[in-house]
Amino acid sequence: TRYEFDVIARCCKQVALSPRTIKRLINVYKLFKIIWFRTKSTQDEQEGKLVREAIISLLVVSARYPNLTRTIFEEIELKFDELKEEELKKESLINFFPDNYSSCKDLYLKREWQKLIHDVTKIKLIPDISLSELGQDTFNMIRSFCFIGDVGYDPSDFTKNNKI
């Protein structure tokens, strides 16, 4: 839709992505949308827009910052498993992008984290949506579509001896 195109364009202007990554992102979103709309019942139009914006922004963030996003997605997954519905309504998606990443000794990762936080908080890349509004099924689908090439796996899971 025009709205989705505008969200993708806005996200891609704000986050440094290569043309190849942008094309991959659009193709992934098209596939995601085909599956997602077949599994979702009709929603309030405004709520649907916010959820679509969250989906697109999480796909963009995971395309730009895959290693950092894996960690964030693991934290979100734990919250879905631990919290009840009422608590999920109070838990904002933005809360999973904390300003502090001081435990990291790697200067490159620390700098990438600062860029990610800037994109999320200063540019407001991620919409203010609760985990309840996003929904666990939608989040699980986002996660399965995010990491192109390694479908949700961390490359460090594989060593020389355990090649695919």
Written account of the structure:
- This protein is mainly alpha-helical and about 160 residues long.
- The protein is about 65% helix and about 0% strand.
- α3 runs parallel beside α8 (about 135-145).
- It has helices at about 1-15, 20-40, 45-65, 65-80, 85-90, 105-120, 130-135, 135-145.
The proportion of residues forming helix, as a percent range, comes to 55-70%
Helix/strand-derived category reads: mainly alpha
Largest sheet, strands/sense/barrel: none
What's the order of the H and E elements? Answer: HHHHHHHH
Number of helices: 8
Q: Note the gap between the termini.
A: 39 Å
Number of strands: 0
What number is the mean pLDDT?
A: 80
Coarse shape? globular
Query: What fraction strand?
Result: under 5%
Query: Which runs of at least 5 residues are low in confidence (pLDDT < 50)?
Result: 148-152
Gyration radius, in Å: 16 Å
Summarize the structure.
It contains 8 helices and no strands.
What attributes characterize this protein structure?
single chain, 164 residues, mainly alpha, globular
Helix/strand layout:
Elements: H1 2-14, H2 19-39, H3 45-64, H4 66-82, H5 85-90, H6 107-122, H7 131-134, H8 136-146
Helix pairs in contact: 1-3, 2-8, 3-4, 3-8, 4-8
